[in-house]
């Protein structure tokens, strides 16, 4: 049995049973190991898998895992920087536009640091951070 046919059969089966988060064609470490074991199990004994190719696949998997770790760390750093920036706005006078088009100006009393929708509080109003037009010093 060819290695490619084993891989294709596995991916078709995986697509039917995986969640939406994994439907983009990406696989995790355990799925990669299952595919590798299937390749080794069904390989032609007269034409075994090349050890250099296997080493390259392990190296690629390791690189992928490291890139995922770096991405996660960068997202954490980015979120921390955003919260720090928002906290630095407390006590400063800002001008911001609201969803209805009205421009408000006032001193930032607090912040709401949600990752998907960061907001600042100006008096009784809350404004999205992206809607800040101007920041004035104290």
What is the element layout, followed by pairings?
Layout: H1 3-17, H2 29-41, H3 51-89, E1 93-97, E2 103-112, E3 119-122, E4 125-128, E5 132-136
Task: Report on this structure.
This protein is an alpha+beta fold and 138 residues long. It has two domains: 3-82, no CATH class; 90-136, SH3 type barrels (Roll). It contains three helices and five strands, in the order H-H-H-E-E-E-E-E. It has helices at residues 3-17, 29-41, 51-89; strands spanning 93-97, 103-112, 119-122, 125-128, 132-136. A five-stranded antiparallel beta sheet has the order 4-3-2-1-5. The longest helix is centred in the middle third of the chain and has 39 residues, at 51-89. The termini are far apart. Residues 1-23 have low confidence and may be disordered.
Key attributes of the depicted protein:
138 residues, alpha+beta, SH3 type barrels, five-stranded antiparallel beta sheet, 3 helices, 5 strands, 20% strand, rod-shaped, disordered N terminus
């Amino acid at each position: 049995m060819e290695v490619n046919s084993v891989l294709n059969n596995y991916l078709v089966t995986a697509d039917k049973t995986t969640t939406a988060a994994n439907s983009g064609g990406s696989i995790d470490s355990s799925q990669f190991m299952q595919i590798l074991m299937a390749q080794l199990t069904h390989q032609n004994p007269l034409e075994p898998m090349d050890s250099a190719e296997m080493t390259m696949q392990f190296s690629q998997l390791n690189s992928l895992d490291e890139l995922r770790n770096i991405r996660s760390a960068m997202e954490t750093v980015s979120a921390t920087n955003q919260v720090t920036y928002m906290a630095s706005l407390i006590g400063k006078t800002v001008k911001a536009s609201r969803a209805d088009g009205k421009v408000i100006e006032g001193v930032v009393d607090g912040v709401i640091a949600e990752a998907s929708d960061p907001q600042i509080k100006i008096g009784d109003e809350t404004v999205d951070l992206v809607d800040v037009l101007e920041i004035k010093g104290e």
